[in-house]
Amino acid sequence: MLVDTHCHLEKNSYDSLEQVIQNMPGIMITAGTNRETNQEVLDLIQQQKNVYGVLGIHPEFVKEYQEEDIRWIEEHIQDSKIVGIGEIGLDYHYDEETKEEQKKLFERQILLAEKYHKTVVVHSRDAILDTYEIMMRHPNVRYVLHCYGSSLEMAKRFLSLPVLFGIGGVVTFKNGTKLKEVVKELDLAYLLLETDSPYLSPEPYRGKVNEPKNVDIIASKIAEIKGISKEEVIEITGQNAVCQFDLDISL
Ligand SMILES: [Zn+2]
Fold this sequence. Notes:
The protein contains 9 helices and 8 strands. The chain is an alpha/beta fold. Helix 1 links the parallel strand 1 (3-7) and strand 2 (27-31). Helix 4 (99-116) runs parallel beside helix 5 and helix 8 packs across helix 9. The longest helix is centred in the middle third of the chain and has 18 residues, at 99-116.
């Protein structure tokens, strides 16, 4: 089963979000990032059969979020079709000054996931060691390292946790050598497909608006790197997604 385990299905990103959802012959997990987009996630999963959601405050919004946003997430975390907490994590790329606040916000949301037995969808940019350290404090939580971009060596360290790696468009890029090595060396049992739509379009659409149906291109690329069939990639990564998120596909 084709599963796009990470996308942002936001109305403002597309001429017709309906059409984008119809174009995808599989399941999508859309991720919230702040108050507005979390509400959008909640509305969308009620309207669209094939769409599931995760709720969270992205590190980009560490300065803007309010207490009631966290309370709101806790109120809805057990809603049907909410399958995790995300997209949360650490991003030191643009803003190093908020490091300590980001760490606190990240860990606090992991604690919520722990309390309600939900999967955590992790964003980590230029912050992999701090990300690792915080995750290691909560070793029983299931994690997805969305758009994994660190080394193979680091990936192997993460394997002591119940973690899967989200593989996206970067694997199709010419300069995606490091990620290709990760995909080649890690067993398919640890990999998930994702697009991060509307961002990170795979080749040959790099730079254009991305959409979940392009997850098929990621599957092809992983198949090519591992020397197996695309069908096998879709089948196994689909099972991985169902397990890691407790996806109830009958909903
Ligand atoms: Zn994302």
